[in-house]
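From: lab user (bench 3)
To: helpdesk
Subject: output format question, protein + nicotinamide-adenine-dinucleotide

Hello, I'm new to running complex predictions and I'm not sure whether the block I got back is the full result or only part of it. Here's what I submitted:
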Amino acid sequence: MTDRLARRRIIVIGSATGIGAATVRRLMSEGAHVCAADINVKRAEALAQEIGGNIFALHIDIADEASVTAAITEAVQRLGGLDGVHVNAADMRQLLHDSTAIDVDLAVFDRTIAVNLRGHLLCTRAVLPHLLAGGSGAIVYTSSDAADWGEPVRPCYAMAKSGLNALMRHVSAAYGKQGITANCIAPGFTVTPEMADHGITDLTMDHFLGLGHSPRVGEAEDQAAMVAHLLSSDGRWITGQVYHVNGGQML
Ligand SMILES: NC(=O)c1ccc[n+]([C@@H]2O[C@H](COP(=O)([O-])OP(=O)(O)OC[C@H]3O[C@@H](n4cnc5c(N)ncnc54)[C@H](O)[C@@H]3O)[C@@H](O)[C@H]2O)c1
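Helpdesk reply: Thanks, we reran it on our side. This is the complete output you should expect:
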């Protein structure tokens, strides 16, 4: 492992489980100082305690503007500045009810947009002044292959992720000349430890193995590796891009 993130001050928003937790571990292993922010602060605290070192956990609810402002203010103060942000949170519970355009409950649409899209705008507005004050900085958002698939299900999730790609391109264009890079990772099917604990059917595994051009499906560490790259100086001339980290699942 390199130390290319040595002392870089990074907030991971949506960090308690899954891809966010793997990203926290990866950033720490490359020397970053990390704030692990999540609505599930108990789990984020347990992660911070387990890893130890230059890490602390904070509560944030990205659907709530006051919570975002308070958490980012405290995080930047405790980190002593800000170099990078991974905005990764999504309300994955909504996916269970995200059916079709005709049938979907508008409450599912509203909650999906409130967290997965509006929440990312709130985070963007809160972190940008700090990054701009430092003269440079990187934002990585977690989008999804779902933004581009054109699937017969989960329209709200796809709409939110498409919007997120647009937000990222805007940030890249509006603030690039001031030293800010913005990119999205768009994971394909990625088995997180929590998904594995929950159990994944053979049918689902076979579907995604068949879809991809890789001997395996994705792991949270595959996504974390791309985030680390984009937040490091190796990624300093990369901006405005959506990276499909998916083992060729959309090839
Ligand atoms: N796992 C996959 O196959 C996959 C595929 C494509 C995209 N993604 C995206 O990757 C990201 C992480 O997904 P994951 O699979 O690791 O799921 P996950 O549920 O483990 O991670 C989501 C995290 O966001 C947090 N969160 C939820 N609502 C929040 C809120 N209002 N405020 C703050 N934090 C909140 C959760 O507590 C959790 O820690 C999501 O953006 C998801 O859309 C995942």
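A quick orientation on your result: The first helix runs from residue 18 to 29. Let us know if anything else is unclear.
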